[in-house]
Amino acid sequence: MMTSRRRFLCATGATATAAALSALGLPSGALAAQGIETSAPQPFSFAQLIERARQMASTPYQPAAAAPAAILDRIDYDAHGKIRFKPDRAAFATGPGPFPLTFFHLGKFFRVPVRMFLLEGAGDATAPTQARELRYRDDYFDMPADSPAHALPPGSGFAGFRFQESRLGDQQVKDWRKNDWVAFLGASYFRAIGDLYQYGLSARGVAIDVAVAGKSEEFPDFTQFFFEPGAPGSDTVVVYALLDGPSITGAYRFAMQRGQGVTMEIDKQLFLRRDVERLGLAPATSMYWYSETVKGTGVDWRPEVHDSDGLAIWNGAGEHLWRPLNNPPRTIASSFADRQPRGFGLMQRDRDFDHYLDGVHYERRPSLWVEPLGDWGEGQVQLIELRTDDEIHDNIVAMWVPKAAARAGDRYQLRYRLHWQSETPFPSALARCVATRLGRGGQPGQPRPPQVRKFMVEFKGPPLQALPFGVKPEAVISASRGSISYVYTEALPNGVPGHWRAQFDLTAEGEEPVELRLFLRHQGQALSETWLFQYHPFIAREVY
């Protein structure tokens, strides 16, 4: 999922006018030489895009006309991997914006055509903003002479786009063609790199009926994108998007800043064509196969495999929660009721390479934190966990689900920021959970009853480091069912100040999950965030 980008403008079979080119702030000769085909200009504003989405929601859904299926089927994984957008056709490579823009090709796994528009006059109060569509041609791409993609007709559309990296940290990138920092590809999925320069989990424009019994999940598409040129020297790009699907339409504004990691401020309005049973707003999608918590014998040679290892929540009451992820025996939906949440996100906390031992660098995968802006009202942070037996499947979804039922004709307006970086942008002063480990319960040298499970939960942070010598924190534990025994806390014998663990045994019969809750305190004061865990006796029995 990586390529490069630059700027297009030219009328069909002719060159663009100098006036139109200068409106972009780009040299007319350079753009004309690119030989890019564009449409005639048309007026554009975000308000117009919102109104268009509203009107679409009152009409039946009509899928975008796709390229011939027989051709797309031949552009399989191997053929698609050999197609690269030509760097000399990338928008914004020479200005005025800070980041070159390139596009993804259609194929067997990316079939929905997406229309791309460049905006002229954006930010100019003296002239209306105009949009010119970039028309697809196969000569925009490098591909083998025998590629089936050559058979696609002109104007077939693109699959998605990405912005190229013009710098890494404080250093200018000598060859921006080799790096990108944000990509939109497939349905309403998009990704960004964090401060460790690595892709990982994805965000989505919206989630429709994820893991609803008896219903198939719906995947609405971003069908059109509009790109502002950007200001010289700026670290921000602005992109508008139109969303369309059988149950929903929407208009989006993304202001994406490349700084320490990537920050996106998103303003969106959604319109429902029909009822939705589970409407997921600000959703994130990730992969969790296994970690140090639970791993079957010989399942894989690596110690851990995951893009994210937990869900963090800073709820409206000010409590910081940490819920380690599971690879459950069946699809599980967990809900955390809240009002006015302060934030939530799928996080990758384990940053030790030796815990993964893999060249794909799971230890560098970004965390994704959702920061609500404005009044989100009442609802739930919902966590959906699906069973997986490989790392190729995204099996985790976290999202905000409003309390009120989502009915046809409803309108939603939402603002939030997405922070793609290694750590949460709003760290708690409390000690945080750094590991969850399960093993056989009971005592060494004595029979180990199969229904007893031992938990070791590790915390690290300044409040634990500040404890007087000889003082132990208290472990405050509760369980939805079963009994807790053999509870104690101790500093880890690793010489690291402020690194403690709480140990306890859980006795629980039956197959139903057990909800556990734990935090550390001293003299009535919480020292740690609250650890939540969903224990599945079936999985534990399989492993141990």
TrEMBL record:
Signal sequence segment: 1-32
Organism superkingdom: Bacteria
Location of this chain's protein in the cell: Periplasm
Gene Ontology terms: cellular component: outer membrane-bounded periplasmic space
GO terms of biological process kind: beta-glucan biosynthetic process
Keyword Signal: yes
Regions annotated as coiled coil: none
Residue ranges of every copy of the Glucan biosynthesis periplasmic MdoG C-terminal domain listed in the record: 44-535
One term of GO molecular function: carbohydrate binding
Pathway annotation: Glycan metabolism; osmoregulated periplasmic glucan (OPG) biosynthesis
A Pfam family recorded for this sequence: MdoG
Keywords: Periplasm, Signal
PANTHER family: GLUCANS BIOSYNTHESIS PROTEIN, GLUCANS BIOSYNTHESIS PROTEIN D
Family: Belongs to the OpgD/OpgG family.
Protein name: Periplasmic glucans biosynthesis protein
